[in-house]
């Protein structure tokens, strides 16, 4: 987020700071849920398919429980996503009023995908014990596709803000002759979309695996925890090196399409060749850099595979057309944190792959499981850092080189926006607190079921451990039916 001092130093509207802070808070909160909305359906169906193909009741138990978490997460995402939708119009009417007809289709696609995903989740949840096993599975297959379609719409809108095209300006400077195809498939769309999708799959995989890594460290070495760890971690480990290459490709696309943003991310002040790479340095307003690790010529090599590659510097444009030194430092640190965590995750994935190829078994070191438990949290940090890099590095533009953030902001008084910010913070704390309380309650009931505490279960009303669907009679608690039925012992919801 932007520093208060840097904003107040500029002659900007008083409402700009609270509008930015409110948008930053809601986006930063919502984006923590996005990996599970986009990727958890895929991981759940992967486990569900394994259960049916191998007639595996443990895998079926995991798939069913993950589907319950997926439903709760989706409900929370409805709240945070709806708030964001309103904020676009309320906080940035200048952008939406002028440019909404050009890039608004992306939001429309996301809305339709959101509606479709809600319907498919309802069908999937209601289908447990009501549909034939394979029929139930195949009806859920479109669910990950709907999630990807929602990501398509959002990234189409964001990539257009970074590289706007598909229109021409009339004499008054208003966009006309909109080409929808060009407005959606902008130069940054491909690099942004695939980098985003793989990041969501990778993050969800590490977070889910991290839950079972903690259980493993606490001595729960049964097949339930082993399988719950192995499947999502394998997905994440396979995608980690892929994500590193996609991230490199996206950074190079920024170098070509948004050179000033690239300069901010790499804190390059003067246009030059043989530009060094700084890890965690700080840019000052006079162009000097303090702190950090300086690696000679590396920035030019990374940008164009040669030390002779010319890298555009921040000083090549007017101060009003580039991020401030503080903003550039924020984007630079966010980018470096993201790259550092990604590099460490590659080592973790290689460790896992080496042990699996040698022994067809998990690593035996407790340090591996400690790192795996932390990996999920680290991935959520990289998601936040990726968003900061994308949005702060684009400053001062809300539509790159066409509209400044200060031109798009609402005319609502700053005091009202600060009050709204406080209310939103209170609401979000309550919403996320409720989400954690529900998930922890579900975990407790599942643990009671797994431990076979009949007396404890008898205190619960019939099937209250199943958070969806009406029931006419209690669920049988013994055995798995022939043919891959999902009736598993111990309450598999």
From TrEMBL:
It is found in: Cell membrane. This is Cytochrome ubiquinol oxidase subunit I. It comes from Streptomyces aureus. InterPro entries: Cyt-d_ubiquinol_oxidase_su_1. Keywords: Cell membrane, Electron transport, Heme, Iron, Membrane, Metal-binding, Transmembrane, Transmembrane helix, Transport. Residues 457-493 are annotated as: Disordered. It is a multi-pass membrane protein. PANTHER family: CYTOCHROME BD MENAQUINOL OXIDASE SUBUNIT I-RELATED, CYTOCHROME D UBIQUINOL OXIDASE. Belongs to the cytochrome ubiquinol oxidase subunit 1 family. It holds the Pfam family Cyt_bd_oxida_I. The chain crosses the membrane at residues 24-47, 68-90, 102-125, 137-160, 193-215, 227-246, 330-355, 367-389, 417-440. The keyword Acyltransferase does not apply. The keyword DNA repair does not apply.
């Amino acid at each position: 987020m932007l520093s208060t001092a840097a904003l107040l130093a500029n002659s900007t509207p008083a409402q700009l700071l609270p509008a930015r802070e409110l948008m930053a808070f809601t986006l930063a909160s919502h984006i923590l849920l996005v990996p599970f909305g986009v990727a958890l359906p895929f991981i759940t169906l992967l486990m569900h398919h394994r259960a049916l193909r191998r007639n595996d009741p443990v895998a079926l138990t995991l798939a069913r429980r993950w589907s319950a978490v997926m439903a709760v997460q989706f409900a929370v995402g409805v709240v945070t996503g709806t708030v964001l939708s309103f904020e676009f119009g309320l906080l940035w009417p200048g952008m939406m009023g002028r440019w909404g007809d050009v890039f608004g289709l992306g939001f429309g696609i996301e809305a339709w995908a959101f509606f479709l995903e809600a319907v498919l989740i309802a069908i999937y949840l209601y289908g447990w014990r009501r549909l034939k096993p394979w029929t139930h599975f195949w009806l859920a297959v479109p669910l990950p596709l709907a999630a990807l379609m929602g990501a398509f719409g959002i990234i189409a809108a964001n990539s257009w803000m970074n590289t706007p095209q598909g229109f021409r300006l009339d004499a008054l400077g208003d966009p006309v002759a909109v080409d929808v195809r060009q407005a959606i498939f902008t130069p940054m769309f491909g690099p942004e979309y695939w980098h985003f999708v793989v990041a969501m799959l990778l993050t969800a995989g590490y977070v889910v695996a991290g839950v079972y890594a903690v259980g493993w460290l606490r001595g729960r070495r049964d097949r339930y925890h082993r399988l719950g760890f192995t499947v999502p971690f394998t997905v994440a480990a396979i995608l980690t090196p892929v994500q590193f290459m996609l991230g490199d490709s996206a950074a190079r696309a920024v170098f070509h399409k948004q050179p000033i943003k690239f300069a901010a991310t790499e804190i390059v002040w003067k246009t030059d060749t043989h530009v060094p790479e700084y890890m965690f340095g700080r840019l000052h307003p006079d162009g000097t850099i303090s702190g950090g690790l300086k690696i000679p010529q590396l920035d030019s090599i990374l940008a164009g595979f040669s030390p002779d590659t010319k890298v555009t510097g921040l000083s090549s444009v007017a101060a009003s057309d580039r991020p401030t030194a503080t903003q550039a430092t924020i984007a630079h640190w966010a980018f470096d944190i993201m790259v550092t965590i990604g590099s460490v995750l590659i080592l973790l994935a290689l460790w896992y792959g080496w042990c699996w190829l040698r022994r067809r078994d998990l690593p035996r070191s407790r340090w591996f499981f400690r790192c795996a438990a932390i990996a999920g949290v680290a991935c959520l940090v990289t998601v936040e850092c990726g968003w900061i890099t994308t949005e702060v590095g684009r400053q001062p533009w809300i539509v790159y080189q066409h509209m400044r953030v200060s031109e798009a902001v609402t005319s609502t008084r700053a005091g009202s926006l600060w009050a709204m910010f406080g209310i939103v913070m209170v609401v979000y704390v309550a919403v996320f607190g409720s989400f954690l309380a529900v998930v922890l309650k579900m975990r407790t009931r599942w643990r009671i079921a797994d431990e076979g505490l009949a007396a404890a279960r008898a205190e619960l009303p019939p099937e209250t451990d199943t958070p969806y669907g009406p029931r006419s009679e209690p669920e049988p608690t013994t055995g798995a039916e022939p043919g891959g039925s999902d009736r598993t012992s111990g309450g598999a919801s």
